[in-house]
Recover the amino acids of this structure.
């Protein structure tokens, strides 16, 4: 993947054309009239006569009529690729409890992106209070993407799996719906599609991938997937970018960098300076999600109890 | 004199046509099965949403019913194998009863687990993508092994009876065809008898570890998780002891019914009930012992995570059911059956019913309350998710599977002698010679 194609030296004139073509190729691909993605192959596109030069995958310069250029449909990665994960990465999340006051923007953004309905939220924001006299706080939970995931251990068909980049995903085309993983998960993070998911025709038409978890399928388990499709595009998971208070930091442990969209910080320093911890450490699941304790809270706990409408006004 | 006794035995133990009660009973079972099947069709159409299971109570009575079937099937190995190996003389009339209970139960255990699957259409994935590290795969392996061994264990001792049936029984064309198909090759030669004897002996030995495994592995479906109420090293032994109890209870109920209906008082005597009563007491005490371990030790500590679960059983939503099961399903049978009068057939039958029904609800108490006591609080879901009461579809399907198992037993009894004829004759001969 890091290997660059051999570039053929070009004359001044053709180089300009080439750059133009390359720019077009950024959003488009040279296509033979037979389009593999749609049935349009049958309907002939009239040649415009205007030719553009493109660099083929083998490193040759080729010339294609502009009319044949089509944007690449956004295709998810193959199932094999989705099971392997991204090499060299180790994704990690840090949730800053001092900044959360139950706005639930993370939840609604997540639900919207993954066609999740209200009663099966992947992200939950729990009101927590350890003991009678301790301070209450809001605790958002995602899938913990454990290092030793109990759900993966018990799956009889390898429908839920752990990737090299640390993400735990579900293959809804493989899942048999035994729900053993739900019983095994101590974080209650998994939800089940008890009925046929209510989806619009557009949502239904989406090409399924374990990386997008969309569209959800009846009789299978779903959960937070750390949005690997977004990461592949170089973007942040939906919850991270949706939170106005910068509660969620997301990043790569190998690079030792996490960001909440505005601040980009060293993961190790953040965890060290603000005494990061993980949930239910005693179980030995080794989550990839860290928490920063709810000290010096930005908002009083009661703020989070107000209804949505009040918060907006 | 000898042949007279033999003829009498053959005559007494021949399969009998259903009387009026038999026809009514069978019809009711078939109707229940059909209703259950209809409910299952509705579940296939609409998904598991027709059940009351939701994201917290993600396992309900389908799973507890599955555990119940696996549990009761253990009796096959208890009565046939353990008693055979330890040379318990009075077991003969009970062996076939317990073995058909085992076969019927294990068949419906497999069906019950399919019923619980969200995607039964992908059942083959279990074989195509099998992952050996999952306790479900262990269960698939041991259950299929146990089913195979149990069927053989039912079939081999049946072989010598088949020629007797072919010779003496005037059945329908189908019945005669069935007997010939299954056993016309059995001539009772010395070589055949030796082979059968050896096979049965090997199976008796093999089936014991397999039987212990099926229920131990089933307990591991729970014990391999972190959940309060399941996270216990006691679980294998706890499940196995409970399984022997319910199995013995099931045999007591069945032997009472067959004895009464087929007038087998000469063969299933009060002595048999007396023996089984003593065994029930022992097994109930054993199960009680494990229950004490299972609940009292965590209750002594009352760890925070356990507290919610334990309190829901002791004083909360499930307390009535919990204490009824402990009391009626274990303590009362122990007390009643300690007395010789309590071990008479009728009280034995009632106590057997207590044990079996108690055991069914006990499995429910093991499965669902734990799921409703998660580590993080039940939150941000519709209020109904915090409770579980089965829907009519779940009841219909579950009752359908129970009726189905009873139907298999009923049909078997209609077609084959429920008490082994050949073995009974042999024993009578031995007795005769001694006199």
């Amino acid at each position: 993947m890091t290997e660059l194609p051999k570039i053929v030296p070009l004359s001044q004139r053709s180089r300009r054309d080439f750059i133009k073509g390359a720019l077009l190729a950024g959003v488009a691909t040279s296509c033979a009239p037979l389009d593999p993605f749609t049935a349009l192959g049958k309907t002939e596109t009239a040649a415009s006569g205007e030719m553009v030069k493109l660099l083929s995958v083998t490193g040759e310069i080729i010339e294609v009529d502009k009319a044949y250029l089509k944007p690449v449909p956004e295709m998810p990665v193959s199932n094999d690729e989705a099971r392997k994960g991204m090499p060299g990465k180790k994704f990690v999340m840090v949730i800053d409890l001092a900044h959360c006051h139950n706005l639930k923007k993370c939840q609604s953004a997540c639900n919207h992106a993954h066609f999740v309905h209200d009663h099966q939220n992947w992200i939950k924001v729990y009101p927590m209070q350890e003991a009678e006299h301790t301070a209450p706080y809001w605790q958002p939970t995602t899938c913990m993407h454990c290092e030793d995931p109990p759900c993966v251990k018990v799956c009889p068909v390898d429908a839920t799996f752990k990737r090299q980049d640390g993400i735990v995903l579900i293959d809804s085309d493989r899942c048999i719906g035994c729900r053993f993983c739900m019983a095994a998960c101590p974080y209650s993070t998994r939800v089940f599609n008890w009925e046929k998911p209510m989806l619009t025709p557009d949502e239904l038409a989406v090409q399924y991938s374990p990386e997008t978890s969309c569209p959800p399928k009846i009789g299978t388990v779903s959960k937070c997937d750390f949005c690997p499709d977004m990461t592949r595009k170089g973007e942040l998971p939906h919850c991270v970018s949706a939170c106005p208070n910068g509660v969620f930091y997301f990043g790569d442990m190998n690079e030792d960098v996490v960001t909440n969209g505005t601040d980009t910080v060293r993961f190790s320093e953040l965890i060290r300076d603000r005494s990061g911890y993980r949930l239910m450490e005693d179980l030995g699941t080794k989550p990839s999600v860290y928490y920063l304790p709810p000290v010096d809270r930005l908002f009083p706990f009661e703020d989070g109890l107000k209804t949505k409408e009040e918060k907006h006004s | 004199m000898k042949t007279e006794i033999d003829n009498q035995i053959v005559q007494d133990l021949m399969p009998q046509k259903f009387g009026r009660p038999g026809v009514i009973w069978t019809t009711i079972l078939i109707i229940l099965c059909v209703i259950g099947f209809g409910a299952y069709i509705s579940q296939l159409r609409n998904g598991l949403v027709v059940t009351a299971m939701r994201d917290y109570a993600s396992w309900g009575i389908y799973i507890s019913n599955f555990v119940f079937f696996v549990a009761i099937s253990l009796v096959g190995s208890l009565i046939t194998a353990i008693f055979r190996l330890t040379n318990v003389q009075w077991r003969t009339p009970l062996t076939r009863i317990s073995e058909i209970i085992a076969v019927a139960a294990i068949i419906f255990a497999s069906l019950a687990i399919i019923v619980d699957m969200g995607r039964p259409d992908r059942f083959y994935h279990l074989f195509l993508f099998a992952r050996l590290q999952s306790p479900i795969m262990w269960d698939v392996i041991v259950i299929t092994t146990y089913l195979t061994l149990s069927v053989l264990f039912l079939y081999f001792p049946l072989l010598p009876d088949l020629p007797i049936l072919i010779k003496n029984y005037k059945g329908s064309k189908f019945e005669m065809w069935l007997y010939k198909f299954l056993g016309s090759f059995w001539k009772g030669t010395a070589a055949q008898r030796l082979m059968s004897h050896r096979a049965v002996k090997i199976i008796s030995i093999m089936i014991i570890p397999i039987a212990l495994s099926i229920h131990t592995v089933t307990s591991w479906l729970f014990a391999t998780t972190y959940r309060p109420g399941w996270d216990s090293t006691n679980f294998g032994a706890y499940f196995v002891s409970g399984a022997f109890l319910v199995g013995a209870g099931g045999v007591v109920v069945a032997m009472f019914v067959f004895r009464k209906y087929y007038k087998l008082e000469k063969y299933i005597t009060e002595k048999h009930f007396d023996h089984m009563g003593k065994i029930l007491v022992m097994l109930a005490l054993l199960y009680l012992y494990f229950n004490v371990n299972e609940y009292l030790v965590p209750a002594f500590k009352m760890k925070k995570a356990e507290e919610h679960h334990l309190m829901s059983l002791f004083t909360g939503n499930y307390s009535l059911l919990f204490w009824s099961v402990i009391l009626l399903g274990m303590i009362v049978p122990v007390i009643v059956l300690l007395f010789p009068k309590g071990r008479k057939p009728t009280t034995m039958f009632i106590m057997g019913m207590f044990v079996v029904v108690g055991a069914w609800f006990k499995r429910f108490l093991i499965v669902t309350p734990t799921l409703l006591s998660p580590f993080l609080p039940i939150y941000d879901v519709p209020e109904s998710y915090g409770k579980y009461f089965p829907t009519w579809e779940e009841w219909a399907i579950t009752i359908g599977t129970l009726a189905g198992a009873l139907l298999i037993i009923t049909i078997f009894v209609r077609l084959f002698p429920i008490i082994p004829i050949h073995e009974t004759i042999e024993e009578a001969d031995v007795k005769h010679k001694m006199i």
